């Protein structure tokens, strides 16, 4: 491992801390964990990725850091309102109970509630919360698998296009590459609407007419969209199809993914209702027009189009997760049961906990509402749980940005083919010489074995030299 002056300075500082012992211990607990054998500290997350502190794998050794940063928890911020209400309710009942105890113990006894109902219903409430969280995590994992499929198919399509570049043509191959690089961005905009678009009537942002393009929002309707339900009903029953006027947006065509779209494809794609699907259709059309050749037939064409079909299927998979929400009845029933359970819980514990009822209820409400909120946050992983920007950039770099470096894997030497032809020619020469051994030459003398041996040695020397030259020649 290379050492720099910074490493030496860090080591000197660490030696000073080791002398005290306390500084190193507190620094490890609050700042991160050290790699064995190095002076580097793994920070939990960079500010560019959101700034949420975390360990490399959420190690149990980071318990102290996770505890002292509870107030910075994003989940706690999201559930702060119900947690404070429930805590205030528990604190109010605890204070009321103390005042009643001072005046009349009999009056205070009317506040007590048996603990058996809460003990019996806790299992049912836990099942409701666990089932919702598990189903939400399955959607999260499935969403990541969909993007894994997109990454793998994008790489496969790029590889196939490079293998058959001579048959496809350089210009057509580059158009397909640019469409392929733009595909993940357009899909990301469809399942996460209004990501980079500005409304035309928004005066806060200044629009440059030369470098912008006008378009409508590209987002699929949700299953719970009332407007889409009314339109569908009118089309089925009355034959009418009236939709509300959609707001017009603009984007800078110098930004991603618009600058990736080749030529006139930018204008046509911007007008499309489903832009990632339009890109798949255009790539399939480009591949359909590749002419047949000695090394390119219907089999290769269908293999390439099959990859675009897989990309198109990923659009449907992502839309299914984004547009289909957890059943409303189940979500409401779980939330209502949780609220009633927490609001009635102080009556079962105020006799024993007294003034500690409020703090205990704060912890329990934070725990239970937090589990519910986690399920809600990850049920649509495309709204922030998955960092789609990193995945989109990965695909773009694999199929477009690193083109020159990756192309070296496909540029084999032409001399390899010449060597194969030379070996075939050698076989033909051997056959001719063997035929000559049974005949006489032009002078009337026979071709003896020594003459044949000299000819064979000369041919072998030529072919061996060509092979060695080819083996030492590097790839271009």
TrEMBL record:
Pfam families: Bestrophin_2 (PF25539). One of its GO terms (molecular function) is chloride channel activity. Its main location: membrane. One of its GO terms (cellular component) is plasma membrane. It comes from the Eukaryota. It is a multi-pass membrane protein. Keywords: Cell membrane, Ion transport, Membrane, Transmembrane, Transmembrane helix, Transport. Coiled coil: none annotated. PANTHER family: UPF0187 PROTEIN YNEE, VOLTAGE-DEPENDENT ANION CHANNEL-FORMING PROTEIN YNEE. This is Bestrophin homolog.
